[in-house]
Design a protein that fits this description.
Layout lengths: L1 H23 L5 H23 L9 H24 L2 H4 L6 H13 L5 H21 L3 H7 L3 H21 L5 H22 L5 H4 L5 H21 L5 H24 L5 H18 L2
Helix pairs in contact: 1-11, 1-12, 2-3, 2-9, 2-11, 3-8, 3-9, 5-8, 5-12, 6-12, 6-13, 9-11, 12-13
């Protein structure tokens, strides 16, 4: 149950990070915000890695790690771009694809073959997301064809699902602390190089004008989410972790929408949350 508890904690932090990222969208360019997010994590994750004093054990670490760095760098930019172009409620439901994609990706990459109970839990969470989407937005096809941010968020779902599987493939060859630090450092290096090569370094100054409280929240949620996820992956299957992230992310969006924005909690929303609670409960006892 330790791994499951860590997975739930990571999922809650990812949900908080989604909300803060949406609040910051439009305050600076998507790439600049992604760079700030990654650079801001580095001192804290670096301190964790230095305290842990366990680094890379062999060269087999680098292929999956570099692939994950590249995917995370791109996914962070695409997420920011998506929520700039479309409402969060019309794009985040596409992230419900991540449990299914991650479950399929983990079969060849990690040999994690879900059983019938795993698939049942994953399916309940995905169906819950679909039910919630029917209340918050248009049909999936209409969202894809009419929402400019939808294709970007679908790409984020694929990249995050694959990168999590690659993270777990890299972890036997490095500690969670060192991988978390190198993942942020590598992704930041990729994005900074991209900005400088395009002569867009002025974009980085835009972040300084953003609300300081939101920037602090961005870093705090990101550090906690990534650290907890890396430790949880030592116990949890990738598909289970991604399912927890989607379930708590969607339920969190409903509850925060009620508390912060006064949005009503309707019948479909309650049904969606019930399905997701059932799905996560099933996974907890699998």
């Amino acid at each position: 149950m330790m791994g499951f508890a860590l997975g739930v904690a990571a999922a809650l932090c990812w949900a908080g990070l989604d909300v803060v990222r949406k609040a910051l969208a439009g305050k600076a360019s998507p790439t600049a915000l992604a760079v700030f997010l990654l650079l801001g994590q580095m001192p804290f994750l670096g301190a964790w890695a230095a305290y842990d004093q366990t680094w890379i054990t062999d060269q087999h670490y680098w292929p999956p790690a570099v692939a994950s760095m590249t995917m995370n760098a791109l996914a962070n930019v695409l997420f920011m771009r998506s929520v700039q172009l479309s409402p969060l409620s019309r794009t985040v439901p596409f992230l419900s694809l991540t449990p299914v994609i991650s479950a399929l990706a983990a079969i060849p990459l990690l040999g994690e073959v879900p059983g019938s109970m795993h698939w049942a839990g994953i399916s309940l969470v995905v169906v819950g997301a679909l039910v919630l989407n029917s209340d918050l937005a248009d049909s999936w096809w209409r969202s894809v064809s009419h929402e400019k941010g939808a294709p970007f968020m679908i790409a984020v779902a694929v990249l995050w699902a694959l990168s999590t599987a690659l993270d777990k493939r890299a972890l036997p060859h490095a500690s969670p602390a060192s991988h978390a630090f190198l993942l942020s450092s590598g992704s930041a290096t990729i994005l900074v190089s991209w900005i400088l090569s395009r002569g867009k370094h002025g974009e980085l100054r835009q972040v300084a004008a953003a609300p300081k409280g939101l920037l602090v929240g961005l870093i705090a949620f990101a550090v906690a989410a990534l650290a907890l996820q890396m430790v949880a992956l030592q116990w949890l299957w990738v598909a289970v972790l991604e399912t927890l992230k989607r379930a708590f992310g969607v339920v969190g969006s409903v509850l925060l929408g009620r508390v912060i924005f006064g949005e009503p909690i309707t019948g479909p929303k309650l049904a969606a949350m019930a399905l997701m609670v059932a799905g996560t409960t099933l996974l907890a006892f699998t």
